[in-house]
Amino acid sequence: MASNINPLGIIGIVGAILMIVSVFLTWAELDLVFFKGSATGWDIFSDSNLSDMINYSFTPLVALISGIVALVAMILPTFANSDNLKKTNNILGIISLLIAIVVIVLGILFMTQSWDLGVGTVSMMSHIAFGFWLTLIGAIIVVIGGIMPIVKNKMS
Predict the structure, then answer these.
(1) How far is it, in rounded angstroms, from Cα 78 to Cα 76?
(2) Where are the beta strands (DSSP E) in the chain?
(3) pLDDT by residue (tens digit) across 68-106?
(4) What's the rounded Cα separation, in Å, for the pair 153 and 156?
(5) What's the number of CA atoms in the CB half-sphere (13 Å) around residue 129?
(6) How far is CA 117 from the centre of its chain?
(7) Whole-prediction pTM value?
(8) Which residues contact 12 (CB under 8 A, 6 or more apart)?
(9) What are phi and psi of 47, to 5 degrees?
């Protein structure tokens, strides 16, 4: 059984956990007319003032759901990578890969938005905090972890 464990799949599990946990960490330090202070990813999604003013405010929810799905999808390829499960594990790896790519794309759209305040433009990029970066890193790690079952099965 130990030989069926895919140690590289643990990378995907770690990335999925990062995606889940980081939604509840600080995503932005804002000093704007409509909000002053720090906001977690969950605050950005659930606070109506923030979600009305920030584009892609659903990104934290997508990251949370994607992290949970990726976590579940990475468990089988990591701990049960036997010959009779190769096709299933490849499919789960592809699912993890695709949902992580969605989070990366939404994350990029989220961080590159800006607001024209009449006296100047404010960019979200200058307000991004640690939790957002951890979410993005987690999604990149899930992409790597999602590729691993496919690569391992192609090589064996």
Answers:
(1) 5
(2) 26-31, 36-40, 114-116, 121-123
(3) 999 988 887 777 666 677 777 778 888 888 999 999 999
(4) 5
(5) 17
(6) 30
(7) 0.86
(8) 70, 74, 77, 78, 93, 96, 141, 142, 144, 145, 146, 148
(9) -80, 115
